């Protein structure tokens, strides 16, 4: 029988398992940037609706999503160069604004054995539903240019992104986000400390078509 998957709000009793999912999903991320059990607990307390766990029918957590609310002035659409560690307040989500009109999608990770089964698509759609439920303007994030590390000696990041947009290169993260309706505003040169993406991300935006001013 094929496995079925459900998205639920993360709860405090899950935080150790969430840390294990995070470590398996981001093997090249630095210790400083990983979300630990203690930080998952803080995130759940700060914005419970924005913390999602994807579980199998046997109750195993195989993917998760971390989100917070923000305002356009904090993100600054004209000067979007920023660092993940700062915007996420070292993953404590201290900059969460309960009345913020944008969702910042901080992190989605699916453990390797469960990839290519549509699970991140489920989580992105759950985020879109969260945006609609709170009547937010949309969702922003830094989409890690996860495949760029392997190309950095062959082409500039600008050329790489052009090829990703044109569908000539598949980027393991940003190509999926483009499929899900995000648009690329620009390149964030120094978003994380991760050789896999040469520290780079795309600043991506999804506008809520149902937003009511
Ligand atoms: C990026 C990541 C979240 C994708 O999760 P996933 O559950 O495997 O993605 P999905 O199965 O929902 O795939 C989404 C789409 O991309 C396609 N896709 C996924 N990986 C692919 C690959 N390596 N090559 C080609 N297509 C791929 C899928 O076929 C699917 O397309 P479809 O909707 O047309 O069928 C996952 O690989 C991961 O956790 N990576 C490490 C952490 C990370 O980079 N997170 C994002 C941080 S911003």
TrEMBL record:
<dbReference type="InterPro" id="IPR016181">
    <property type="entry name" value="Acyl_CoA_acyltransferase"/>
</dbReference>
<protein>
    <recommendedName>
        <fullName>N-acetyltransferase domain-containing protein</fullName>
    </recommendedName>
</protein>
């Amino acid at each position: 029988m094929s496995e079925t998957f459900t998205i639920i709000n993360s709860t405090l009793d899950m935080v150790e398992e969430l840390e294990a999912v995070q470590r398996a999903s981001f093997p090249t991320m630095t210790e400083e940037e990983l979300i630990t059990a203690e930080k998952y607990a803080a995130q759940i307390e700060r914005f419970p609706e924005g913390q999602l766990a994807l579980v199998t029918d046997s109750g195993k957590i195989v993917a998760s999503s971390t989100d917070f609310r923000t305002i356009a002035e904090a993100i600054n659409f004209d000067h979007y160069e920023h660092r993940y560690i700062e915007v996420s307040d070292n993953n404590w989500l201290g900059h969460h604004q309960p009345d913020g009109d944008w969702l910042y999608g901080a992190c989605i990770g699916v453990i390797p054995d469960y990839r290519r089964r549509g699970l991140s698509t489920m989580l992105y759609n759950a985020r879109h539903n969260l945006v609609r439920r709170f009547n937010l303007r949309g969702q922003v994030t830094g989409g890690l240019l996860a495949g760029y590390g392997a190309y950095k000696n062959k082409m500039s990041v600008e050329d790489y992104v052009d090829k990703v947009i044109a569908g000539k290169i598949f980027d393991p993260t940003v190509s999926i986000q483009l499929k899900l309706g995000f648009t690329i505003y620009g390149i964030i040169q120094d978003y994380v400390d991760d050789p896999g993406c040469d520290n780079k991300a795309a600043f991506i935006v999804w506008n809520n078509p149902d937003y009511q001013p």
